[in-house]
Amino acid sequence: MGSAQAPDTNPASSQSAHSGNIIGKVGAGKGISIVWVEATPGIAVAKPAKPFTFSQKALRFEPHILAVPVGASVDFLNNDSVPHNIFWPAISGNKKLSHSLGTFPKGQTRVFQFTAPGIVPLLCNVHPEMAAYLIVTPTPYLAETDESGSFKIADIPDGSYAVTAWHEGYKTQTKPVTVASDARVDFTLAK
Ligand SMILES: [Cu+2]
Question: How much of the chain exceeds pLDDT 90, in percent?
Fold first, then answer.
């Protein structure tokens, strides 16, 4: 039988800096979970160029959960016919990071740049039932799961990392993962 080696057709192997994807599944309650790679020396964190928007419509925040990388600016748009307020009492429990954007009418936007990572519970003091979560991740390597809990964080430089999963009403969980091409990490969150 022939023993000729197949040509190397993997384009990634010709690059000097290798990277891979982290895939996995988060087991938790209904709705989406957020997964991110924790800060690691050597991982670049640049201010994201992409604009992020929360709107308030029909007395709800839209979306209910949004993940953005640290440094991101978020537009908060009142899309309702009534005035809304937006405030957060803390970021990841740190009350020193509480802030209010005030109360503003239909069509107006307030912008805030988030320079500290953490879980930001968004509230409206006009409508106590209004609530949403902004997740500010320490690196741009983040993913939103689908409703089944599956996620993929793409193009992470090879290396060893800590990966954290968050779900509303559950305890966050952090696991180690080594990326050398692709890697898999699964979470089962507890209340
Ligand atoms: Cu409101």
Answer: 83
CA of 66 to the centre of ligand 1 (A): 18
For residue 127, report the distance from its CA to the centre of ligand 1, in Å: 4
Residues with CB under 5 A from ligand 1 (ion): 84, 124, 126-127, 130
Output the DSSP codes for 155-189.
EEESEEEEEEEE-TTS--EEEEEEESS-EE--EE-
- pLDDT of amino acid 36: 98
Q: What pLDDT does residue 1 have?
A: 43
Domains and CATH numbers, the chain: 19-40+141-191 (2.60.40.10), 52-138 (2.60.40.420)
